[in-house]
Specification:
Length: 297
Amino acid sequence: PPGCAVVGDVISPAGEQAVRSQPSAVPQGSSRFKGVVPQPNGRWGAQIYERHTRVWLGTFAVEEAAARAYDVAALRYRCHEAATNLPGAGESPPELAFLAAHSKAEIVDMLRKHTYADELRQGLRRGRGMGARAQPTPAWARVPLFEKAVTPSDVGKLNRLVVPKHHAEKHLKHGPEAVATGKGVLLNFKDGEGKVWRFGYSYWNSSQSHVLTKGWNRFVREKGLRARDTIVFSHSTYGSEKQLFIDCKKTKAAATDRAPVRMPVPPPGEKPSKARVVRLFAVDIAGDGCQKRARPV
DNA sequence: AGCTGTGTTGAA
DNA sequence: TCAACACAGCTG
């Protein structure tokens, strides 16, 4: 049966880009959706406010996608009182449980990376109601593909990882159409914690190199990846769906060169939840949630 | 070079 | 709290 390939979408086939007739700023006027703002290039941004500050939810090619992102964030931030855009939002108890099982920062991160749908689906599959956190795939369920010790430029400002040619051609083959268009593909990976990462993967003629591009810098930041650390690629052993994995082996850091690990888009007023978070039955129990609370105006 | 997402403002 | 507008600086 169609096992729903998770592996790669072709990057926006360019059919969706609305034709911009007027070069003036913000030609779109405004959106009919709450939390959705037009971008100068005809795309759509999504944002939600909390505590006087804006939390950016990412940009989207289609207005409805931005509206959906706002809905998801609103359900997580405001629970029942959430005013949502699209019909049916918030009517799925499993999704609500999934939302409750993740911190605001995690949900926002998924929205900005466009991995929310994937992670929700996988979370629900692993299911069990509220326990729907991502889970690591054990080593025995994977087959190693290749490793690379990252170079300074791999973790620098270039926002790209050079994949050694022989490894790329053997393990990360992408369709010829993707190469032809020069656009590349988007590849989903999972890390050791079961978190989904999405990277652009393309071939740069200028440098004759296969590279992981879009999304790579985020991975570097969040993992605190530094030159000479090693990243390991693998894929699942079972199923024909080659779920890809990426993990990093940090080199033993000298006491002096600790890298500050920055967390992704920490919305103000909330602690990032990566490392040790107070969690009970997979639910945050810090003052983050939607418990009833006296609400003086 | 183009785009994202922040700075900022004024209205609701 | 919210979106309009402008644009610095990040990203592909």
